[in-house]
């Protein structure tokens, strides 16, 4: 019986309780901070992913107070169905391409056929998003789930960089506005069910980006430590912040 213990990215990554011994992927290589497992046909792309995550590991450890001596097992599956079978969710939506828990990341190979996520979506964004999710869950598990997710996506560039995922994020945000008639309020982000059903991860990501742009990254750690200090840290009420943030959204994303 699979046990969902958290939510990382609807239709992209989820946090699941998995047993490593159930994984049948062969070992590919062990680096300073990662042990990669993948099929032979995915060794080349695994090497590219390894360069990407190793290249940012120390920087991210320093930023999020994660143990730099930790070793993370990284499983790359040759097909979407193989990944779904491994997480014991054989009928999962095709868009579910990654999962993580403390010390372990699993994802669908960028080489695999998938009509929801492109090669670039899986190669450029999923590895870093899931790596940061692991770090934040380890070091700041009490921080709001939506803020941790938005921060993980921000670190990877998902929904922020020009291109496919930004366009997809805009479509998701537009769908929310068409259904609700307005932009989300903080209560929407904080409610797990609403956040998941309405796919509010692009909003969470852009909110983080807006904070960093206007107040700098120095305010992020205080938020992770105690989000209840939001108004104190930014020097404005949530209502005033939301008004200014929605104007930013209208200007830059709609």
How do you describe this structure in short?
The chain has helices at 43-64, 80-86, 119-139, 145-156, 164-180, 186-190, 192-197, 201-215, 220-225, 230-234, 238-253; strands at residues 4-9, 13-16, 27-30, 34-38, 72-77, 98-101, 104-108.
Radius of gyration: 18 Å
Sum up the overall morphology in one term.
Answer: globular
Tally of separate helices: 11
Give the structural class: alpha/beta
Got a strand count? 7
Distance between the termini: 42 Å
CATH class of the largest domain: Alpha Beta
Major β-sheet strand ordering: 1-2-6-7-5-4-3
Order of helices and strands: EEEEHEHEEHHHHHHHHH
Largest sheet: 7 strands, mixed
Helical fraction equals: 40-55%
Q: Which runs of at least 5 residues are low in confidence (pLDDT < 50)? A: 1-11, 16-23
CATH architectural type of the largest domain: 3-Layer(aba) Sandwich
How many domains? The number is: 2
CATH fold-level topology of the largest domain = Glutaredoxin
**Strand residue percentage:** 5-15%
Mean pLDDT: 88
Give the topology, please:
Elements: E1 4-9, E2 13-16, E3 27-30, E4 34-38, H1 43-64, E5 72-77, H2 80-86, E6 98-101, E7 104-108, H3 119-139, H4 145-156, H5 164-180, H6 186-190, H7 192-197, H8 201-215, H9 220-225, H10 230-234, H11 238-253
Parallel strand pairs: 2-6, 4-5, 5-7
Antiparallel strand pairs: 1-2, 3-4, 6-7
Helix pairs in contact: 1-3, 3-4, 4-8
